[in-house]
Amino acid sequence: MALASRLVNKSKLVCASQILVQKEHTILVRHFAKDSGPPALKGDQMLKNAFSEVKTKFEAAIGILRKEKITIDPDDPAAVSHYARIMRTIREKVSAFTEAQRIRHTIQTETQDIPDARTYLLTLKEIRIKSGIKDDMGAEAMMMEALDKVEKDLKKPLMRDDKKGMGLLMAEFEKMNKKLGIRKEDLPKHEEKLELDVAKAQLVELKKDALEAMETQKKREEFKDEEAVEAKNLDIRNFL
Predict the structure, then answer these.
(1) pLDDT digits (tens, 9 = 90+) for 220-234
(2) 8 Å CB contact between 198 and 132
(3) Against a cut of 0.85, is the pTM above it?
(4) CB-CB contact of 72 with 232 (8 Å)
(5) CA nearest 74: which of 21, 132, 12, 19?
(6) Orientation angle between helical segments 187-218 and 2-19, nearest 10 degrees
(7) Residues with Cβ < 8 Å from 177, sequence gap 6 or more?
(8) What are phi and psi of 21, to 5 degrees?
């Protein structure tokens, strides 16, 4: 039961994190009595409608997960690709953000009040890490080097409302992009890689939680003689 419980919770969290934890779906949970109390106010009805929408989308996501076999093996490219496809299907079903759109939304939300370029870049790094994305090309270090160069020329910290200074920084970034071979026309390819990186990070977390749950099970007397099961052989559909 412990293993089933942990996997159910984690499976729901994986899809819910893609679908429900967005600004437009963040709602307060209230108790509504079915046949008691005063007539519903307009605000109450709006809240009910919002809750109903989230519930419908969540059930749609779980319905897809009940049909699709997820192989919990982050080291298998085929398993990662399949998992990414399942998550993409769920997002399309419920009209949710793609990973790239979600990250852009997060960046916009978390950086809109940041006045200086350095704090902005450091915040981008935090968002990348939280999203489970690797910086394999070392782009962040190069961006900070570019900022250091511009601020040295300006002899002051670069503020985001400094059009001239930001223009210089954008020019440095353009040089960096050319050096790394990054082109605008390659954006779809990079977004696809982003989807795979996030899918792999989520499978890593699923595997970690599954192994921890099974280890807890093994400590119980009634399961001590049971043979260990590999995470990749588990079928989450059995626990939904």
Answers:
(1) 777 667 777 788 877
(2) yes
(3) no
(4) yes
(5) 132
(6) 160
(7) 183
(8) -85, 65
